[in-house]
Specification:
alpha+beta; Nuclear Transport Factor 2, Chain: A; 6-stranded mixed sheet; globular; Polyketide cyclase; SnoaL-like; NTF2-like_dom_sf
Length: 109
């Protein structure tokens, strides 16, 4: 990665690159929330299942290239390329951290 990400966010993207849903879910707090494509996933089990479904449904690569802060959230803009409708696309990942874990993540175009 060309930008220096907070450790847990770096771990999230590294696990995503490997398609490791379990490792991704471990980046989150027990009661974390993810919003992606208009769906909300609450808790590590739901987050693990969300990522497991996404990684079996599509093949993709994600490359974070920008980091800013907005309203207390860390905003990572990433370039996604894969076999999903609309590829390639730049997505924004809005992270809210709690200690060394992710408490909230919202992914939007």
């Amino acid at each position: 990665m060309s930008i220096e990400l907070p450790k847990v966010i770096e771990t999230y993207f590294s696990a995503d690159k490997k398609g490791n849903a379990q490792a991704i879910s471990e980046c989150f707090t027990e009661d974390a929330t993810v919003i992606d494509e208009g769906n909300t996933y609450t808790g590590r089990d739901a987050i693990r299942q969300w990522m497991a479904n996404a990684s079996t449904k599509y093949t993709y690569t994600v490359e974070p290239f920008s980091m800013t802060e907005e309203d207390g959230r860390i905003v990572i803009t990433s370039h996604l390329v894969g076999n999903f409708p609309g590829s390639p696309v730049d997505l924004r990942y809005f992270f809210v951290l709690s200690g060394d874990k992710v408490a909230e993540l919202e992914i939007v175009p």
